[in-house]
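At your convenience, could you comment on the folded chain following this short note?
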Amino acid sequence: MNFDLTNKVSVITGGARGIGLADAFALGAEGCKVILIDIDDTAGQAAVKQLKAVDIPAFFYLADATNENQVISVAKEIENNFHHCDVLVNNAGIGVKPAYLLRDMPLSAWDQMISAHLKSAFLWSRAMIPLMEKNHFGRIINMSSMNFTGGGRAGVSHYSSAKAAVAGLTKTLAKEVGGLGITVNAIAPGYVETELIAQFTPEMRAILQKQNPVGRTCLPEEVAALVTFLCSTQAAFINGELICMDGGRRDFYWGN
């Protein structure tokens, strides 16, 4: 199946590494121009070099995905330079360290988590929808998590709540923009081989892999393959969905 995205313009928040960078490679391989948004200038510039080395047209904007003024400013630059946007992958977010029981959680930790995952998706979706309307085509992909679909675990209520809210935003926004040729879907991955997983001890990795029916963790490229399909014309009637990508282990697990 050909997911031809030639001349499409994609924006990927948190695009400098991990799942975001894998998305960039996958979308770029289908002919898409990729615009990376990240707060890490060094990683962003390095990612662009990697993409250009395989002839993918790549661009980088240094911006905080949770800062309204910065989002508006970069959105204007994207409109001036590219005139439209076809794909938005809301991948920006933060991890769960340190973990807090709810009764011990500082308000600042709660606010930071909700902002990183939910506010960023809100700001970038709001900014890019007008650029998608121009061609009556758009694909918005949000990143939820097994931390929501699997019921969460003690100590990460802020993260689970943020990812649940992203799923809710997905379903509501899908109803608002479906008639504009724009679809909105979310992916809820299980453990993915990113820098975070690389920090786990060999013992913990072995437990996680043994517990999963597939016997391993997910690869960033597998998430990116699903992102690419959802961005294609073949997926035009998939809208408002939360797609689990957890190897068949829906319930949350953490060495138990």
Remarks:
- Residues 24 and 34 are 6 Å apart (CA to CA).
- The chain is about 45% helix and 15% strand.
- The chain has a mean pLDDT of 94.
